[in-house]
Amino acid sequence: MYPYQAPFEETHYYYDPYNPFDPYAERQQQAQGQQQQQQQTYQQLLNILMSSIIGEATAIDFYTRLAKDAPNEYSKNVLLSAAKDEKAHLHLFTRLYTSLTGKEPKYKIRPVKITNFRQSLFEAYEDELSDYEKYRNAYLLTQDPSIRDTFFRPFSDEIKHATRFSFLLNAR
């Protein structure tokens, strides 16, 4: 004779928030942690986008005005080319912000005061380096290809601008 075996019964697990060894509680905590991390990343991304939109709009205004004070045609063309790139960046960031939030960004710029050409160009150079790092970090913040693509061109252009501004600063 064979001993009696009960038919296979599926074991049901129930979430027990008070049991520290409950594997389902651990999974739920991990899921909540991931959700909080995603929310923080999303908010961080929106903050970066808004500051980038304001920064790009400010740069367009600044470079266009600074080009009028340029000592030669080459410097003027470098500044106007940078302003053109900044317009493209502004468009990219505005489009991404609108697609993420469902609304157009609202902002105002404070025009940068132009003291003298060389000092203002140095400020532009420093700003371009700072923006390069900000956009590179935003690019690395997410794995979403559309967001990464939006930041890729601006972070490459910003280092190009810094290089050209450095050349203008060091030209004799």
TrEMBL record:
Signal peptide: none annotated. Residues 47-166 form the Rubrerythrin diiron-binding domain. InterPro entries: Ferritin-like (IPR012347), Ferritin-like_SF (IPR009078), Rr_diiron-bd_dom (IPR003251). Gene3D superfamilies: 1.20.1260.10. CDD domains: Ferritin_like. It comes from Fictibacillus terranigra. This is Ferritin-like domain-containing protein. SUPFAM superfamilies: Ferritin-like (SSF47240).
